[in-house]
Design goal:
The radius of gyration is 18 Å and the shape is elongated. By secondary structure, the protein is an alpha+beta fold. α2 packs across α5 and α3 runs parallel beside α5. It is 31% helix and 16% strand. A 5-stranded mixed β-sheet has the order 2-1-5-3-4, sandwiched between helices. It contains 5 helices and 5 strands; from the N terminus they run ββαβββαααα.
Length: 166
């Protein structure tokens, strides 16, 4: 029986990508379909950003792009040429934790830890945005970040404590 040849898979185009990753200019060669999340985890070795739902619904992949919260699983890497990308690894100053990281430890704002990096990065942005002043507003502003363990009261308390410390 003769076989029908299958068409060749389309070639994936790739291009150089230079961005500022946690304060350092970094260049990669990236295929057009690579997400920012996969670039961070697989190419840059920054595994703090988690792949949760891979659909933009859980917030585990939250990073800062030019200071704004971004779901990295939904963002194509090549769309961020020249951008400043900050992951949870880029928040601390050497061995000194970022105030939000320290508050998460102090307020026990994590259990399994899977969502923690996205929660912390999102909290940094919420504080910088300055719109969430009450615990209810903090909870609303953080609502895109899901915690399967239910550490929400502790997360809100940690964010509120950092805001109160000014």
């Amino acid at each position: 029986m003769p076989t029908t040849p299958r068409p060749a898979a389309p070639a994936r185009s790739s291009a150089p990508l230079t961005l500022r990753l946690n304060g350092r200019e970094t260049t990669f060669v990236v295929e057009s379909a690579v997400t920012l999340l996969d670039l961070l985890r697989e190419r840059a070795g920054l595994t703090g950003t988690k792949k949760g739902c891979d659909r933009g619904q859980c917030g585990a992949c939250t990073v800062l792009v030019n200071g704004r919260r971004t779901l990295s699983c939904l963002a194509l890497a090549l769309a961020h040429a020249g951008d400043e990308i900050t992951t949870v690894e880029g928040l601390a100053n050497g061995a000194e934790l970022h105030p939000v990281q320290a508050a998460f430890v102090e307020h026990d704002a994590f259990q399994c830890g899977f969502c923690t990096s996205g929660q912390i990065v999102s909290a940094v942005a919420v504080i910088a945005e300055g719109r969430a002043r009450t615990e209810a507003e903090i909870a609303e502003a953080m609502s895109g970040n899901l915690c399967r363990c239910g550490a929400y009261p502790n997360i809100v308390a940690a964010v509120a404590a950092v805001q109160a410390a000014g």
